[in-house]
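User: I'm putting together a teaching handout on how multi-component assemblies are represented. Below are the sequence lines for each component of a complex, exactly as they appear in our records. Could you produce the 3D structure of the whole assembly as structure tokens, so the students can see both representations side by side? Please keep the chain order the same as the input.
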Amino acid sequence: LIEGEDLKLFEQSLRYATENHTGAALDAALEELGWQDALSADARAAVSLLFELQGAANVISSALDRVLANALGHELTAVVLPALGQWSAPGVLDGNRLDVHGVGTASFGGHKTALIVARAGDSQVVVEVETASLTQRAVEGVDPSLRLVEVAGDIGGARELGPAEWRAAVALGQLALGHELVGASRRMLELAREHALERIQFGRPIAMFQAVRHRLAETLVAIEAAAAMLDAAWLDHAPQTAGMAKATAGRGARVAVRHCQQVLAGIGFTAEYPFHHYVRRILVLEQLLGSARSLTRELGSEVLTRRQLPALLPL
Amino acid sequence: MELDAFRKALDDWLDEHDDELAPSYTGGGTLDQKMAQIAKVRRLAFDAGWARWGWPEQVRGFGGSTLLRAYLSEAVTARDLLEPGLYSLPEVLGPSVITFARPELSAKVLPPLLRGDEVWCQGFSEPGTGSNLASLTCRAVRTGEGWRVTGQKVWTSLSQYARRCVLLTRTGSVESAHKGITALFVDMDAPGITIRPIETMDGEQEFSEVFFDDVPVPSDRTLGEEGQGRAFAMDLLPYERSTALWQRAAWLDRRLRDLVGAAEPDALDPTALGEVTQLVHAFRARSRTTQHRMAAGEELGAETSIDKVLLATAEQALFDLVAEALPAEVTMGDDPESERWRGEFIYSRAATIYGGTAEIQRNIIARQLLDLGNDR
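Assistant: Of course. Below is the structure of the complete assembly, with chains in the same order as your input.
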């Protein structure tokens, strides 16, 4: 595990990297500071620190691909994410024919091959395909700077690499996205807080008005609930807890968007103030590897079907 | 004893003594029945040693981590032996009394509290004083032997059962605001105390008004020094808003489980059920962190208001779901189980009111955690 002074140094380097680089440059910086090794040695430290900082700085990297590839037992390549809102495997394999609909991150086109998890009968397998064999659409959408790629294909000659631990990989990806949502939410709260203290109306900072204070307090509560769920999910290693954490972080981020945007008022609605970048990012991150809505509904259905609640993390 | 060993051994003991520990009533029980049940569980758990772990040796505890007593509270709640609201008062009052009382006093009065031989009440709120301690008016005046207390408290839980009261009094001038407050440890059978129970909308008489008319209190019953009442209250409130809440998570989980078992298959909306499950787990996750921080000796403060907000949110969401999914029980049922669901639904309306309202918690979060400046 990465602890004590090492942890502090690691966090400082990650902070510097995320505050100064994005995209391929951030990937290079992460490579240089040994983030991939850290991921293998101490997944919790590597994922929670990087993704919170990445969310706070509103930058992008291919770290999510690495988290998923690592969890699937492979290295350094692109991984096709499920379609928006879902976490079910993005491919269907029939013989050696692969049908896939999903999403790639910004670095997708830069890789020669991509990993795709596909359903094959009752099981799930990891398949490797040439990225060039897939149809790719560069997504502008609500958050162009995230540079997602919509990926589709119905192709032959897919190479099966073996069974997929997809649920476990999804759980790690959900934790990464949960931390990124928390990082973005904390930054929005900082922006709104600073504004509330500086903006004077009726002769005093608007931070003096209880309606404003309570919105910001509510935001902090939502963020801390998400942070606590993420901690719990790291401790109990249950995929169901990771899903609950992602849902709580997604819902919390939307609470943060709503309250912080209202407190920032006009300034937060402009393109020149950075707030809108976070609003955009959160809208998309909320949809990756299961939205709060779909995860919450699934959880409820599962409880009803099995007549059993998720296990409690022991004290 | 380590937590894992304690957990195992306590679980075994609870299994073995299941019959002896079980309540004699079905459903929620009356307040008298609930109080008798809590006293019984405390006595059995104390005599078998379990209720002594996590408390210091000076009060006949066995020492060890506070996590041990947290687990005891969780275990008895998860088994539906008792309800957390009434059980947790010693968790709220005990630690601060140990810190502030003279050692001889706490050595004498804590053991009967922990053994369930006596109940204590918390005399903080007044008709004109909710969360604003500076406006406290219940007056204590120095005499040769100690203090004479005159004034009124309100919302005093379980005062009709209480042998002692942890009382905040005004000992300085009104202008001295929060500086002129002193905490006293008062015997409820002292002359001059009158209790008038308040019936709440769930039909219980959990709270009372308590009137003090020239009530004598010896000097050695002062908790801390004269003028330290606010420090006492600030020491106590984090317990009220955090560590004492741990067993609520076990209770919410238990009642959610009961709801899933009791509701017709199509009565529960999966999305609403999923969200309540997440809220309960998020509160528990937060509270778990707080328990571990306390056990590690960290000083708890304003951040416990987040625990309280999460509890109130989860509790109301759960019982809103109960009202939707078990409408016949909540609105029409007159059997003990229905009455319990109805009582809990009604009580949950107060979750954003008692122990500092949802608004007070948000004020604390805004002022102390977000550093938004003083709004007064």
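A couple of points students might notice: Strands of chain A lie at 78-79, 91-94, 97-104, 113-120, 123-130, 135-138, 149-155, 159-163, 200-201, 204-205. Chain A touches chain B through 45 residues (CB under 8 Å).
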